[in-house]
Amino acid sequence: MIVLVIDAQGGGIGRQLVLSIKQALPDVEVMAVGTNTAATAAMLKAGAASAATGENAVVVCSRKADIIVGPIGIVIADSMLGEITPKMALAVAGSNARRVLIPFSHCDNIIAGVETTSTTELIQKAVAEVQKLCKTS
Asked: Which CA distances in Å does 130 have to 18, 46, 112?
């Protein structure tokens, strides 16, 4: 089972996801892709088994992953201050992997109907969904 964590900007969300997934599912391979080197370094430091940076890495790793986890912006072209390219968003959205998307209302993308929840709680909920998906596979 390969869980791919994708993040942008400083990689803080990705770092928390990698740490939490590794703690909850120690036998799962956690792969990380950052849209920039800072995001990648944060996730690698958190314990990702492998990591890469950039558009092509998102495309290639999205094909290899069983589960993709990250902020909802990873499927919205030009989101996350422009760090998510159209090619990245298409690769994630078109992947055969199951996607666990965290509903952050950032960067001009408002998620209607989602209650205000702390980042910690959103990450806990995302990890719980990953655990469920790993159990059913």
From this structure: 12, 18, 23
As given in the structure block, the two tokens for residue 10 are 């400083």
- 11: which residues sit within 8 A by CB, 6+ positions away? 34, 38, 39, 40, 41, 42, 43
- The burial class, CB within 10 Å (0-12 / 13-18 / 19+), for 79 is buried
Spatial distance between the Cα atoms of 90 and 75, rounded to a whole number of angstroms: 7
Report the C-alpha gap between 136 and 49 in whole angstroms. Answer: 23
pLDDT tens for the chain, 137 residues: list them.
Answer: 999 999 998 889 999 999 999 999 999 999 999 999 999 999 999 999 999 999 999 999 999 999 999 999 999 999 888 899 999 999 999 999 999 999 876 667 777 777 777 888 889 999 999 999 998 76
Residue 84's closest CA among 67, 66, 108? 108
